[in-house]
Design goal:
Blueprint: E1 4-13, E2 16-26, E3 31-35, H1 42-49, E4 57-62, E5 65-66, H2 71-77, E6 78-81, H3 93-103, H4 112-122, H5 135-147, E7 153-157, H6 165-180, E8 184-189, H7 192-195, E9 200-205, E10 208-213, H8 215-220, E11 225-230, H9 234-241, E12 248-253, E13 256-261, H10 267-276, E14 283-286, H11 291-298, E15 308-309
Helix pairs in contact: 3-5, 4-5
């Protein structure tokens, strides 16, 4: 039996289908990512797993405990960190941590070694109200509170949203340490660079799981021919490149444009086309697909007939 088993979970909000017959399993000690744009259903799924929301249909178990019948036991073994900072903002750092430790019948001292690597960053501010902490410090405090009762599983809903790049990197270093301790981690994120740090990822959109695989295998499965393009006028290039070929798709990727095609074409032909449009400083290179390229294709975020995609994922590389 897998540590987490999800079987045909569905949840609707009126006519809106937030989660649609979702099924997958997670092994003990795995760092599992749920990746998708805003509104994909990630938060709803996580709230169901943490017994805070009832599913309309389907069932799930964590460590053999049913999320409906054994909700009290699941709450004892799970640490949950919601996407929105939900600690008591008028309590200090130390007071919040002591409060959550007391709820679970433990103390800060008893489990200090588990949170030590996180807490050392916020301990100098232990007498500061939680509401007055920076974004990165708030997330470290929230993670400390989720860990203080020594959970078997961490369920983290977009834990790095809104914090700086350095804090994001530190946060993921901590998650890898917890994974090495044997803690199972489920984490959702809209950041593509974070997906590559998971053992496996589930690609989710419109309440459906589109694919589950390791980041490496997802990239290996990418088939289209892919090149990167730059010029002296990127805004105009976006418009012009749409007219190159109907069977090509283009999307913005940082400071370049990625153009993909099911068929290999002559780059000199593309260069001539761009030059005729009045561009200079043109740079065309073959490029290795990233997990973001794969997700854009899988999620159909690249409109057909070569139009410029409005990519819904957030991108902020370290």
């Amino acid at each position: 039996m897998s540590f987490v088993e999800i079987n045909k979970i569905s949840k609707n909000y009126g006519s809106h289908k937030a989660v649609l017959e979702t099924s997958f399993t997670i092994e003990k000690g795995e760092l599992f990512g749920v990746i998708g744009p805003d509104g994909a259903g990630k938060t709803t799924l996580f709230r169901i797993l943490t017994t805070l929301l009832l599913a309309d249909s389907g069932f799930a178990t964590i460590a053999g405990f049913d999320i409906l019948k054994d909700y009290k036991k699941i709450r004892q073994i799970a640490g949950y960190m919601p996407g929105k900072f939900s600690l008591y903002q008028d309590l200090t750092v130390e007071e919040n941590l002591a409060f959550f430790a007391t709820i679970f019948g433990t103390t800060i001292k008893e489990n200090y070694e588990l949170i030590k690597d996180i807490y050392i960053h916020i301990e100098p501010f232990k007498n500061r109200q939680a509401g007055k902490l920076s974004g990165g410090m708030k997330q470290k405090l929230a993670l400390s509170c989720a860990l203080i009762h020594k959970p078997e599983i961490l369920i983290l809903d977009e834990p790095t949203t809104g914090i700086d790049a350095v804090s994001r990197k530190e946060f993921w270093d901590l998650l890898r340490n917890f994974k090495n301790m044997g803690i199972t981690i489920i984490v959702s994120t809209p950041y593509m660079d974070e997906a590559s740090m998971c053992d496996r990822v589930a690609l989710m959109q419109e309440g459906k799981i589109m694919q589950i695989n390791s980041p490496q295998n997802i990239i290996k499965e990418y088939k289209p021919f892919l090149i990167s393009i730059k010029s002296n006028n990127m805004h105009k290039l976006c418009e012009d490149i749409r007219q190159f070929r109907k069977n090509c798709t283009t999307f913005l990727f940082g400071q370049t444009i990625h153009l993909s095609s099911e068929e290999i074409f002559n780059k000199k032909e593309l260069m001539n086309f761009i030059e005729l449009k009045g561009h200079s400083g043109i740079k065309i290179e073959d490029c290795i697909p990233t997990i973001e390229d794969c997700f854009c294709v899988k999620f159909h975020l690249i409109p057909r007939r070569g139009s410029i995609a409005k990519v819904l994922f957030r991108k902020n590389c370290w």
